Every structure is written in C-alpha cells, then in structure tokens.
From TrEMBL:
It comes from the Bacteria. This is Malonate transporter, MadL subunit. GO terms for cellular component: membrane. The keyword Metal-binding does not apply. InterPro entries: Maln_transptMadL. Coiled coil: none annotated. NCBIfam families: malonate_madL. It comes from Ectopseudomonas guguanensis. The keyword Membrane applies. Keywords: Membrane, Transmembrane, Transmembrane helix. The chain crosses the membrane at residues 7-27, 33-51, 63-81, 93-112.
Length: 133
C-alpha cells in the first residue's frame, strides 16, 4: 500500500533527525548534525534491504516516489534555515569541511555507479578456447 511507503519515509526522517540531534549533543553543537543525510541513507539502505527481501512492494514504493517529487523544495526550505553567515564567520574549518565533503562525494560517484551493475557477457563467461602451448 502507498501509505506504507509514506510511513517508511516518515520513520527514516524521524530516525535521522533524532540521530542528528544526538550527534550534535555528543559533539557539543547546539544543532542537528546531518539528520537529513542520515535519514536519506537510512531510506536508501533500508529500502534496498526490504526490496531484496520482497517486503517493499511496488505500491509501497509509490508512497516514497510521491514524496521524492517534492523533495527538492523541502531541501531548499531546510537549507534556508541554516546559518551560513555563522558558518563562514566561524573560520576556515567550516569551509574546509564543506569543501572536503563535496570533493569526497564527487570522488565516490564512479565507485557508487558501479554498484549494482551487471557484468557484461564477455566478463561473466570464461573463455572456452585455450591458447596453444
């Protein structure tokens, strides 16, 4: 059912925000530290896990797809809440951390794109001909 997909998304969002708040308190930052990112990672990994087990049906995926259609406006609204001026005035560490995260993300794109790709027929089948000796 579509409502299960929406409930799954809500669970991942609440769990991610809770973990982000907990991380913020643990490192002494009075803010949510990566809650939305953690929620998205939970959504991806748990969704993939449930899909492989046959517990996440096509109708449930429609609930997630519904919210993915409005994901960008939500992210823009959440980013507007961030204090960019405070981060920039906080010193070069905030700029370095942001730059490093983007660089690592770009570097991981090729590796992540290979995950889940099927091997081509030439790589999967061993050669039937033997070389002469």
């Amino acid at each position: 059912m579509i409502i299960y997909g929406v409930a799954f998304l809500a669970f991942c969002t609440l769990a991610g925000i809770f973990i982000g708040e907990l991380l913020g308190k643990l490192i002494g930052v009075p803010a949510n530290v990566g809650g939305v990112g953690i929620a998205m990672m939970l959504l991806i990994f748990l969704g993939s896990y449930l899909n492989k087990r046959g517990l996440f049906t096509g109708k449930s995926e429609q609930g997630v797809e519904f919210w993915s259609a409005i994901y960008i406006p939500i992210v823009v609204a959440m980013a507007a809440q961030q204090n960019v001026y405070g981060a920039l005035s906080g010193g070069p560490m905030a700029i370095l951390a942001g730059t490093a995260a983007v660089a690592i993300g770009f570097a991981l794109v090729p590796a992540l794109s290979r995950i889940g790709q099927k091997k081509s027929d030439s790589e999967a089948a061993p050669s039937l001909t033997k070389a002469p000796r």
